[in-house]
Each structure stands twice: as structure tokens, then as C-alpha cells.
Design a protein that fits this description.
It is a single chain. The protein has helices spanning about 20-25, 40-50, 70-75, 90-95, 125-130, 135-145, 150-160, 170-180, 195-205, 205-220, 235-250, 265-270, 295-304, and strands at about 10, 35-40, 55-60, 80-85, 220-230, 255, 260-265, 280-285. It is of the alpha/beta class. The protein folds into 2 domains: about 10-90 and about 205-304, Rossmann fold (3-Layer(aba) Sandwich); about 115-205, Putative methyltransferase TM0872, insert domain (DNA polymerase, domain 1), CATH 1.10.150. Strands 1, 2, 3, 4, 5, 6, 7 and 8 form an 8-stranded mixed beta sheet that branches. Strand 2, helix 2 (about 40-50) and strand 3 (about 55-60) form a beta-alpha-beta unit. Helix 7 (about 150-160) crosses helix 8 and helix 10 (about 205-220) runs parallel beside helix 11. It is globular, with a radius of gyration of 21 Å. Bound molecules: S-adenosylmethionine. S-adenosylmethionine binds near residues 19 and 37.
Length: about 300
């Protein structure tokens, strides 16, 4: 689907265990370069093994894709032909109890994608134990689209007066009480903790902020004819991508390749149920000559 030459520079912003990278970079020759970025050192270790047989040059970098410009600068690469971001978490991260991302496993309430050994950033436990009730409610409402956000925030603040909330199980029990949920029943479509856990993970990793930084940096980092592809799992992220591509189309920076987002096919959903909410959008950078001049862009921004 993505178009590039065998000597292309491909930046996989979320290399994970290397699945997409392997597919894309197997078409590159020895002049081609794959740059694989991930915040998670455990994923990078697996990616290194999985990508070992590629015939192109490979650089794996532990960093946040929000810093994509700095990553490329450090490697002395001015422009890329493909920028791919498959944002969110991997199944391995979700299934790792030590990361505390899933409400299904008992573990420390951490949620940092960089992993529990990281010394950077706040954990989910830091947020639930220190934020004001209103701040917590806003996070749970905005990032989790949870209608009971205020009641959940209130219950968290009340519970932490007795004991610091350190584990996923403690938090799940607090949320279950708010919903009067005792488990096992089929009346709820999703587990009551789903949205709150998602919201906290998005907040801990500033997932919407780093996506915006990536999208802002991308036009200057793409060669003419180069493509950016973003796979998102959440409507909030997809909205950000859609808005950015449209704004860049309006000033003739991008052509939008996917008029509608591409969604996973039945077979893929069967083998990977999480792909059911994935949306792929692709844009191609236009030639400079097709871009409106700076004044025109400025006046467009003022009236937009
Ligand atoms: C859905 S998985 C990617 C899977 C990958 N496409 C594959 O085929 O194996 C998302 C990956 O992105 C990483 N990630 C998420 N946000 C990131 C960020 N802001 N910067 C760098 N990596 C990030 C996660 O650590 C995770 O490994």
C-alpha cells in the first residue's frame, strides 16, 4: 500500500517487536535504511532479533517518537520516504503484569510504555495518589470517555485517604464498587475498569501530545512524494490524525491517500481481536511547487 523505492529511508516510529518493520524493510536493498524507534527497551530487544536478517541498513533507537526530529538529526538523516506510526500498546505490553496496563492482571499501577525499570515520568500510581479530584475526573472523562468519571474520581480520592493506591487490583476494586459490579455478569458490555485504565495510560504517556508533536514535525522530515501512515486505536487519536492531514491538504502540503480510514478485515480481526478498532490513514507529501506561498498559508490560518 505504501509506495517507496528499494533505497528508501523508512522510519517506523513504533517498531515494537518489528512486525511492520520486517514487512516494509524486506523490500529495501543495501542502500535502504530502516530506522526503528520505540520507548520500550524490551520491545527493541525482540525487534533486534526479528530484524537481524534484513538486507538493508537498520538503526534501532530507544526514544519517544515525539522526538522524531531529534532522532533523525542524531543519525544525520535529513528526510525520510516513509514515516509509519502504529500507536498505542502491543499485546506483549498489555499482557505483562509488571507494567500494570491491564486491569485483568494484578500488578504495580505503573503504565509507562518505557517499562517499569524506567526512571522517567510519572506512573499511574503517582497520578491517582496526587492529582486533585477534578483533575482525575477530567482525565477519566476526556481520555476514557467515561460517563461515571466524577464518581470514580471521588471514590479514588476517598480510598487513598486510607491507603496509597499501588496496584491494579486496588484500583479495579474501587471502580467495581462505584458500578456495584461483582464480576462474572454479562450485563456490562465492557469491564467497568476498561475506560479508566485506558484514560490513565493515555495520561501517563501523554499519548495525544506526542502524536501531535509527531504530526507537526512530519512535513519537514518527509521527502517530496514521501508518505506518512498512522494506525490509531482510539477515536481521539484518529480525530487528531484526520484533522492534521486535512489541514495540510488545505495548504497543499499533503495529498490524502486514504479518503476514508482503512480498517482491519474480518480475517485479521479473527487472528488479532485488538485490530477491530484500528484505523489506518495515509498522506503523501506534495512537491514544494504545489504548495501555497507562506503569505497565503498565514492568511488561511487566520481565517480557518
Ligand atoms: C501497537 S505496538 C507496535 C507494533 C509494531 N507495529 C509491530 O508490528 O510489532 C506499539 C508500540 O509503540 C510503542 N510506542 C507507543 N508510544 C510510543 C512513543 N510515543 N514513542 C515511541 N514508541 C512508542 C510501544 O512501546 C509499542 O511497542
Amino acid at each position: 500500500m505504501l509506495e517507496y523505492q528499494p533505497d528508501a529511508v523508512i522510519v517506523d516510529c513504533t517498531v515494537g517487536q518489528g512486525g511492520h518493520s520486517l514487512q516494509l524493510a524486506s523490500k529495501l536493498n543495501s542502500d535502504g535504511l530502516l530506522i526503528g524507534i520505540d520507548v520500550d527497551p524490551d520491545s527493541l530487544k525482540v525487534a533486534k532479533q526479528n530484524l537481524a536478517g534484513l538486507g538493508c541498513q537498520v538503526q534501532l533507537v530507544k526514544n519517544n517518537f515525539g522526538n522524531i526530529a531529534g532522532v533523525l538529526e542524531a543519525l544525520d538523516i535529513q528526510r525520510a520516504d516513509i514515516i509509519l506510526a502504529d500507536i498505542g500498546i502491543s499485546s506483549a505490553q498489555l499482557a505483562d503484569p509488571n507494567r500494570g496496563i491491564s486491569f485483568r492482571f494484578d500488578g504495580p499501577l505503573d503504565m509507562r510504555l518505557a517499562g517499569p525499570a524506567s526512571t522517567e515520568g510519572q506512573t499511574a500510581a503517582d497520578l491517582v495518589n496526587t492529582l486533585y479530584e477534578k483533575e482525575l475526573a477530567d482525565i477519566i472523562f476526556q481520555y476514557g470517555e467515561e460517563r461515571r468519571s466524577r464518581a470514580i474520581a471521588k471514590a479514588i480520592v476517598s480510598a487513598r485517604r486510607d491507603n496509597r493506591i499501588e496496584t491494579t487490583t486496588q484500583l479495579v476494586e474501587i471502580i467495581n464498587k462505584v458500578f456495584g459490579y461483582q464480576g462474572g455478569g454479562h450485563s456490562q458490555k465492557i469491564h467497568p475498569a476498561t475506560r479508566t485504565f485506558q484514560a490513565l495510560r493515555i495520561a501517563v504517556n501523554d499519548e495525544l501530545g506526542v502524536l501531535e508533536r509527531l504530526l507537526e514535525a512530519a512535513p519537514a522530515l518527509l521527502n517530496e512524494g514521501g508518505e506518512i501512515a498512522v494506525i490509531s486505536f482510539h477515536s481521539l487519536e484518529d480525530r487528531i490524525v484526520k484533522k492534521d492531514f486535512r489541514a495540510n491538504k488545505d495548504i497543499s502540503v499533503y495529498d490524502i491517500i486514504t479518503k476514508k480510514p482503512i480498517i482491519a478485515e474480518h480475517q485479521e480481526i479473527k487472528s488479532n481481536p485488538r485490530s477491530r478498532s484500528a484505523k489506518l490513514r495515509i498522506a503523501r507529501k506534495l512537491a514544494d511547487s504545489r504548495r501555497k506561498d507562506k503569505n497565503e498559508i498565514e492568511s488561511y490560518r487566520r481565517f480557518a
